[in-house]
Amino acid sequence: xxxxxxxxxxxHVKGVTCGYPLLIQATEVKLNDVDFNAEFVARMIxxxxxxxxxxxxxxxxxxxxxxxxxxxxxxNNEDFLRKVHHILLEVEVLEGTLKCPExxxxxxxxxxPNMLLNEDRVLRHPKTWIGLGxxxxxxVM
Amino acid sequence: xxxxAIQLEKQHVHSVYEKTAPYLSDLRCKAWPRVxxxxxxQEPGSLIADIGCGTxxxxxxxxxxxxxxxxxxxxxxxxxxxxxxxxxxxxxxxLPFRDxxxxxxxSIGVIHHFSTKERRxxxxxxxxRTIIPGGMVMIYAWALEQKRRRFEKQDVFVPWxxxxxxxxxxxxxxxxxxDKPVDIHPTVYSEEYRWINALRKEISTKRSYSLxxxxxxxxxxxKNPEQENRFYSGLGKSLRSWFxxxxxxxxxxxxxxxxxxxxxxxxxxxxxxxxxxPSRHFSIDLGHGGxxxxxxxxxxxxVFVETTNYKEAQWWKATGTLREINGGHQTVVHRxxxxxxxxxxxxxxxxxxxxxxxxxRIFRRTSTLDSTDSILDEIDVxxxxxxxxxxxxxxxxxxxxxxxxxxxxxxxxxxxxSIVSSCFDHGNWCVIAKRKTPGVSAL
Lengths: 141, 443
Hints:
The complex is a heterodimer.
Chain A: H1 3-6, E1 23-31, H2 38-44, H3 50-59, H4 78-90, E2 91-99, E3 105-109, E4 112-113
Antiparallel strand pairs in A: 1-2, 2-3, 3-4
Chain B: H1 2-20, H2 33-40, E1 47-51, E2 66-71, H3 74-82, E3 86-89, E4 102-108, H4 117-129, E5 131-142, E6 155-159, H5 187-204, H6 209-212, H7 225-234, E7 242-245, H8 253-257, E8 274-276, E9 281-284, H9 291-294, H10 312-320, E10 322-326, E11 329-333, H11 354-357, E12 361-367, E13 374-380, E14 395-399, H12 405-413, E15 417-425, E16 428-435
Helix pairs in contact in B: 5-7
């Protein structure tokens, strides 16, 4: 699962008010070499939720001094575009979990997220969930 | 009805795709030019989703766009993944994407697997939700009207034929399609023979005469779970009959749910008899003979319920004319004893005695592709008692669309979309629609 894909994913559990972004807990991350296409990246950026992208990259330790805010005139900033390219397309989560801030978690296996909600999928109670990057830890009483 | 629909799709869509995934080869189902063109027409840097991507044959058409594939079937998604595609497993009815992310979406051969109109609408609405205003969707769904045949009803169960698959499951990644002819799998013969035999034994017992009025190939007259099990266990993988059912939408489910009870071989025909129509077409009035669908013991099947019994006269009327309409030639099948000379035919049985006259003959069909015609040929069968793979689970459900139905469905029920074009292509109705821009009237 590339971070570009992750940026579009949300929990679709009914009643969840904030199922986005899904927090990544990765146990295996892979780096790929992907041909850089400036125009492609420039066109992708407006489609992204920027803060979610930054958060995801950060949680995987691949932020690489990418600015937390979108720079203006990024279309012509090749250095910036290359950094974005790296995050969007070259960082891949192979194994791990995608956790919804409110409801369940979705496994990522062999690079494939499984977003199905089956009866056998147990939803974690929010109070028992410890999120990656969470400042505070919630413990069930 | 929702639960019934879910069960039906679980058994006759998801389960079948999962089990047949190892045999699927992209070479058997080529990427269609129209779909490819739709993808190539997208601007570079677009975000595209293939909802129901299968093995991902459309995901590599346009490398200038970001292609995301998703499918309900894990094994198929894994195959796509191995090709290097970006894919995920999800449900069309609950797409895990935020609103308005995609520039375009394709849905090729997916919508027809939803068993109720309501679910089909929901699926299309879900897709529409993920498209940016001005973005496009292309939907392909099987057509009722085919070039060389015509489905008699809109809700169909299509058997899967392993013989058509070019790939041995153990030879992943290899292309063997050149070597294998489209032919019947040898196990078919014995399987159908065993089934015919089973029916003969039935007839020779003290079963009600209505069993004897089965069509000799026996795809009918299921009156109790044992018969139904035999029926299914006898279905050869080469069976290319189309099984029709009442649409779940047609059935008055609720009032009968409480009355659901196991089938009994009581008087007359019950509603799960198969109505035979043109010889290639077999109609199962499931109404609520749900056990026909999954071939399991009836007690497990709480999806369908009984409706009123059919009178035998109705059954005969339905089976009285077996007229095969096949583009150029027509074969009229008469209900009489013994085989009709030469021609392709399907004998029927009038009374209890006809089965013997065709006892050593079974009929096989050959198909070109799973969505097109089949030709009925006659073969002789050796006496084999092989234990064969049970094919009862390999019946895929389709709701085939009449001309205009898909467009109409979208126009009436999916306000977010406006129809751009509609055409017939490769046995499918193809509709292209556009996500409306807020505040602008439909184009």
